[in-house]
Amino acid sequence: MAKKKAFTGSAKTASALRGQSTEKNAQSPSITAMVWYREEEYPALLEFFSDRDLLPLTWQSWHERAEAKQQEVEAAGTQVIKVFIDLATFPEWCRSRGISPDAEARSQLAIEVAQSQSFSL
């Protein structure tokens, strides 16, 4: 039987994924999908996000926090997959699912991307 890889995103989405897992194996690598933003798109994404008030005002501030979190996660032995939120596709992705463009949506996208790439890791 093939080993399944463990995925995590935000705490909420990580627990949902663990609930979907049918096989637990301590030998499986742990993978965290982290939402990432391109500097040039950050201001426009902030305008689009329904929870923009929860994010830093500048890309530099966000990036410093994200890199620190990435280092913390990797130091704990977890592989990080950066999932870039794309201004050209994320709005339509949200609309097609009828969901608000917020942290939960960003986390869900990150998990979907990580799961789709899990067989190529």
Please identify the structural class as seen in this structure: alpha/beta
Distance between the termini: 18 Å
Main pleated-sheet profile: 3 strands, parallel
Low-confidence stretches: 1-25
The helix tally amounts to: 5
Number of domains: 1
Strand content: 5-15%
Question: What is the element layout, followed by pairings?
Answer:
Elements: E1 6-8, H1 11-20, E2 30-36, H2 42-48, H3 59-75, E3 79-84, H4 90-97, H5 103-117
Parallel strand pairs: 1-2, 2-3
Task: Provide an overview of this structure.
- The structure is a single chain.
- The model is unreliable at 1-25 (pLDDT under 50).
- By secondary structure, the chain is of the alpha/beta class.
- It starts with 5 loop residues before the first strand and ends with a helix.
- Strands 1-2-3 form a 3-stranded parallel β-sheet.
- It has one domain.
- Helices cover 47% and strands 13% of the residues.
